[in-house]
Amino acid sequence: MKRNTRTITVPATLDHLEALTGMVTEHLSAHMIPEKVAFEVDLAVDEACTNVIRYAYGPGGEGDVTVICSIDPHEVRVCIMDQGVPFNPLNVKPPDLTGDVEDRAIGGLGVHLIRTLMDRVSYHYRQGKNILCMTKGLPIHPKDEKSDNL
Q1: Nearest residue to 110 (alpha-carbon basis) of 47, 42, 38
Q2: DSSP code of 142?
Q3: Can you say how many angstroms the Cα of residue 90 is from the centroid of all Cα atoms in its chain?
Q4: Of 49, 70, 107, 117, which has the highest C-beta tally within 10 A?
Q5: H or E stretch including 113?
Q6: CA nearest 24: which of 5, 2, 52, 10?
Q7: DSSP 8-class letter at 94
């Protein structure tokens, strides 16, 4: 099974957010990923990278963020890594979306959005790194199974 992968590592600052998300967008576009899938992956990546940039290294802390985007005939997989404070976003309690907006707790919507948009989300802390992997399945079209685009 052929897998195409691109990787980018940049300082974890808002100034570099566009480089991170842009790499993913370009990679998805280059492999003709369907627009709906690409939009959902892009949105999840933007949210996850923003969380790393804002929270991983604490106030005034510095560090890098790495994004790895892999595409194979069946799925898109994006892993985001940082060496910040260990934090498993999957432990964040789902937000209560039934109450009044004014009464809701602040935060947690981004993680909820990621879980909703992506088919699978996993987190690991290994060798001093937070690793968040998000996977989105691709629609299977019988005539496209032998596509050379991937």
Answers
A1: 47
A2: G
A3: 13
A4: 49
A5: helix 109-117
A6: 5
A7: P
The CATH superfamily assigned to 4-143 is Histidine kinase-like ATPase, C-terminal domain (3.30.565.10)
Distance in angstroms (rounded) separating the CA atoms of residues 141 and 125:
36
Model confidence over 4-13: pLDDT tens digits? 999 999 999 9
User: Do 11 and 57 meet the contact criterion of CB atoms below 8 Å apart?
Assistant: no
d(CA 32, CA 48): 23
- CA distances to 50, 56, 134 from 43, rounded to whole Å, are 11, 19, 12
Q: Tell me the whole-structure pTM to 2 decimals.
A: 0.86
| pLDDT > 70: percent of the chain | 83
Cα gap 144→142, rounded to integer Å: 5
Angle between helices 35-51 and 109-117 (to 10 degrees): 150
Q: Which one-letter amino acid corresponds to residue 90?
A: L
CB of 81 closer than 8 Å to CB of 66: yes
